[in-house]
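To close the chapter, one final illustration. This time we ask the reader to focus less on the individual chains and more on the assembly as a whole: which components sit near each other, and how the overall shape emerges from the parts.
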Amino acid sequence: MALPLEIPPRARSVMSTSKASPMYNLRSSIASTGSTTSLTSLFAGTGASLPRDIVDDIKSVIHHAFVPHIAVHVSDDVDEVVREKGLPDFYQLIRPYGEKVQGRITARDSQGSSVPFEDFAVRFVRLSDVAQKPERKGNTSGNSFRNGEYGGTNAGIPEAINSEELPLADELLDLHLSHAEELIDTNLATETESHTGQAYYLLYLRKILSGFPVTPHETWAHPVACLIAISSRNTTPIDTLRQLYKSGSEVNVPGYINKEYLRYYVLVHDEDKDDIVKSAALFEQMKRHFGLHCHLIRLRSAMCIVSDEDSVPVAKSQWLPASEELAELHAHQEEDIENDTSSRFIHGSDEAAIKTMVREMVAQSVIPFMERNIASWNDQILSRRKGIGGRVLSFSRRFLGSTGTRTSSNSATASNFDAATNSYDPMTPEAQMRKLADWSFMLRDWKLAYDVYNTIRTDFNNDKAWLHVAGAQEMTLISLLLTGQPITPKIRADTIDVYLDAACYSYVTRFRAIYAALRCLLVTVELLRLAGGSSAELAAKWAIKALDLNIRPTVGRALISQRVGDCYAVRQGAGSGGWGGRRRKAAMWHVLAAETWIRLGKFAQARHCIDVAMPKYVNTEFVLIRRFVDQMRLDSGYVNLLDLKIDTGVGEAGGEIVEVENGDGEEVQEDDDGEVEKPTLDGKRRSILIPQTPNGDAPGVMTMDDADGPL
Amino acid sequence: MAGSSTSYYFVIIGTKDNPLYEAEFGSFKQGGDGIPKFREEQRHMNQFIAHSSLDCIEDQQWASKEMYLKTVDKFNNTWVSCFLTGGNIKFLLVHDTRSDEPIRQFFADVYDLYCKTLMNPFYEVNMAIRSQTFDQKIKAAAKKYL
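The assembled structure is written out below.
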C-alpha cells in the first residue's frame, strides 16, 4: 500500500520507538472513552439519535472532570518505601486509583435522599502543585500582563487561568493521531476501527478538562481534603505527622484557597520489613491523636516483577494532563526498550489495599465532610441570602457600593471583593457560596448547584467581579443542562445564548483566558448536543464560536470543525424527506474538517470525514464543490470502495488501481517534500479549477463534463 | 473579502438541490466595477454555503407567507438571502453586507426573468438555464440594484 502519509519527523521518531513499548498503548486510552467507537461514525453519518452508551460516555467525561481534588502531602520515608517498589513516589502510585473509586458511593443531596454513584472519582494532586503554580505565574503576569489596560484592576490575576495545557493537548493529539495513521498504514489497525472522530474528540476533551488550573474564580482545583502520610519506618511518627500538618498549612497556598480542608492521615505499613503489631499500636495512637480520619495501609516494599504470582500492572491514569503525558512519551523515546521502566507491576495485594484506602477515605471521610459543609453553608449563608434580610442586606450593600464608586475610585471598600488580587477572601459569604455550589456540583446535586450559581451570579455582578461572573455563568449553564430539564426555546434564547455570550466575552476580551472560554464552550456544546433537536443546532453554533478562539490550523481546530458537523448531524429531520434536518450543513462541516486534516497531514481522519460527507455530494451538480471534494479525495488517498469493486469485477483493472494509488502517493509525496503543505495544495487546487468560460458566462452547469477531467 | 468591495454569488437551485444557473458579480455601488473579487478559496466555499443553507430554507419556508425569505443563513461573515418561487425553486444570493431592500428588488426582477424562461416551450423545470440573454439580463438587474 502506498498510501501517502506525512508525519512530522519529531512525531515519527517518537512513534517508532513507542510502538514497540507496551506502555504506549493507544488502544487502551481510546477504548475507555468510547465503548462503541465503531458505531459512532455510523451514527454520526446518518444522524440517528445518539445511542445510549455514547451519551453515557460523554456524560461520564463531564462527570469525571469536575471531581473533588485531594492534595497529597507525604513524608520522605513514604516515598522511599514506594521507590523501593520501583515507582517514583506515593502520589504516582495512588493517583490512578482515584479515577475510579471501587464500588458504589452514596451521597445525600440537599433534599436528604441518598443518591448512589457507581463511578465516583477523585483527583489526587500534589500539595506543592496547588501551591506553587499560581505564585510563579503570578510573578510573570504582574510584569507583562497588560497591566495598564484595565486600570490595574486585573493586575493581580494569575495567568493560571490561561492554562498552558491547550497547545500541549494539541500536540499530544497530534502524536496519537500520527500513531494511528501509522497503524492504519501498516495494516495493524483497520480504518473503521481506530479512526472514528468521536474517540479522538473525547480524548481531546478529556485532556482539556484534565488539568484545571488553580484560579480564584472557581474552586475545582482547590483541595477538598489533604492526605497526609507517614510510613512505619518513621522513628518519630506523631511528630512527623504534626510537622506535615504544619508544613502543609504553611505551604505558600494562594490566599483565596480555603485552608480548612479535611486532613486525612495515613500510615503506610511496610509489610516486608516491619512488624504489623508495632504498626497497629502506632495506628491506635494516631487515632487517639488525630481522630477518626485515619487509615492504615499495608504495602509491600519488595519490587514486583511480571513473573511474580500475584503481579498486576500499575493502572494507567486516564486523566493525565497533556503536559505529563507528553513528557512521558518523550521520555520513552530516549529510553531503551530493555530497561523499560514503563511496564511496572505491583502486587495484587497492594492494589487491593490502595483501592480499599481510597474507597474508605472517599466514602467515610471526604463525602461526609462535604455533605456536612454543604448543609451548613446552605443553612447559614444561602438561606440567609435568599431570605428577606438577605435581600435588604444585598440591596443596601449595592446601594453603598454604587455610591462608593461614585465618590472614590476604590469601590472595594463596600464589597468583599478584593480587586487587587481579583478574588474573594475564602471566609466571605461570596467565596463560600461559590464553594457550596462547586461542592454540590461535585456530588452531582445539579439542582442545588444551579440555584446557588444563579444566586451568586448577581452578587458577583454587583461587585463587578467579572471573572467570577463568567465562571458562575458558565456553571449555571452546565448545571442547568445537567439537571435534564427540557430545554425550551425560551431557555435557549434567554439563558443559554445570553450567558454563553457574556461568559465568552468576559473570558476572552477581558481576561484573554482562552482556555477557560474553550472549556466553557466545549462542555456546553457537548451537553447541548446530547439534548438533540434544536439544541444540537445551537451546539453547532457555539462550536463554531469555539473555532474562532483558535485561528491556527491545529489538531484541536480540526477536531472541533468535525464536531460542528457531528452536532448538525444529530439534528434529524421529520418525515421521509428529512425536513428540518441539517444534513447538508453537517456534510459541509465534515468537508471543511477534512480540508484541515489534509493540511495537517492526517489523511486517515480526512478520509473518515470525506466518508461521512460523501453521500451528500456524490451526485452534486455544483461544479466547484465536486472539484473540491474530488481533489480532497485525491489528496487524502481516498479509495472509493465502490470503484474498487467494479474494477476488480472487470478483472484486469486490478493493476490499474495500484497504479492510480501509486500515482496518488507520488503526488502527495511531492507535497510532503515542500515544507509547508498549504501553498502547494492551494496551488494545485487552483490549477484545476475551471477558468471562466471564454464568452464570459459564469462557470456553471454548462461545464459539467469537465468535472470528471482531473480524475 | 477583507478590504475589497462587496461581491455577490447568485445561484438558482432546483428542486433536487441542483444548480440551474450560477453567476458571480461585484457591487456597482460605491464606485464598484461589477467584477467579483472572490478569492480562489472563497469560490467553492460560496457553493458550499449556498448548498448548506438549503437546510435552513427548508426550515423557514413553511413559516413565512412571503416568497422573499430575507436572510436565511450566516456563515462567518457571509450571509445568504433567499427567494422561494411557487415551484420550490430557490434563488440564493451569497453576500457579505446586509441590505434587504435592494436584494428584494433584485430578486423580483430575477423572478420575472425566470417566469419568462419557464414559458419557453423547450424549457422544463429543473433544467439548467443556458440562455445568453437570461445571463445578460441578470447581470443588468444586478447592476441596477446591487
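Chain A touches chain B through 32 residues (CB under 8 Å). Confidence is low (pLDDT under 50) at residues 1-49, 134-158, 401-413, 644-711 of chain A. With these observations in hand, you are ready for the problems at the end of the chapter.
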